[in-house]
Amino acid sequence: MAYELPFLDLQISIIKKLKSDTALMAKAKGVFDAVQKNQAFPYITVGEPFSMPFDTKHSTGEELNLTIHVWSQFNGKREAYELLDMCQRQLMQRGYDVTGFKIERIVRKGTQVFDDVDASTKHGVLNMKYTITNN
C-alpha cells in the first residue's frame, strides 16, 4: 500500500512549535531548515530525518528520527545547554499540527553538545523519535 511520508509536514510542525515558544525565541535568533550566510548566533536548525516503516494490520506509518541542532558562540557551553533544554521541553509537549498524520508517541533519543570545527561555535544536538501513523 502506498502512502505519503510525513517528513515535510512534521518539519513544518516542529518549526512552528519551536517558534511559538516566546522564551525560546527571545534567546534564539531563529529556527531554520536552511541557514543564510552570516546568520546571527544563537540559532536552531531542523536537521536530518531518518525513518523506518511502522505498519500494523490496521494502519501504515513511520518511526521517524529527527535531529534538532542548536548553534551558539557563547563563551562556554551554557547557552547551548539552555537552548537544548528549551527545545526538548517544547517538543515533548503534545499539540503538533501534522495534517494527514497522527503522532502516536514522542521519545527523546539523546542530546549532546560539542565544540564545532571552528572551536568558537558550540554545537548542540537533540535527537527525537516520532511514531506517526497515516489518518
What is this entry, summarized?
This protein is an alpha+beta fold. The chain contains 3 helices and 5 strands. The relative contact order is 0.23.
H-E order: HHEEEHEE
Task: Outline the biggest β-sheet.
Answer: 5 strands, mixed
Radius of gyration: 16 Å
Strand percentage:
35-45%
Strand order within the widest beta sheet: 1-2-3-5-4
Count of beta strands: 5
Query: Helicity level, as a percent range?
Result: 25-40%
- Structure classification: alpha+beta
Q: Spans with pLDDT under 50 lasting ≥5 residues?
A: none
Described by the principal axes of the CA atoms, the overall outline is elongated
Number of helices: 3
Word description of this protein:
This protein has 135 residues and is an alpha+beta fold. It has three helices and five strands; from the N terminus they run H-H-E-E-E-H-E-E. The chain has helices at 7-19, 22-27, 78-92; strands at 31-32, 43-53, 61-72, 101-115, 122-134. A five-stranded mixed beta sheet has the order 1-2-3-5-4, covered by helices on one side. Strand 4 (101-115) and strand 5 form a beta hairpin. The longest helix has 15 residues, at 78-92. The protein is elongated.
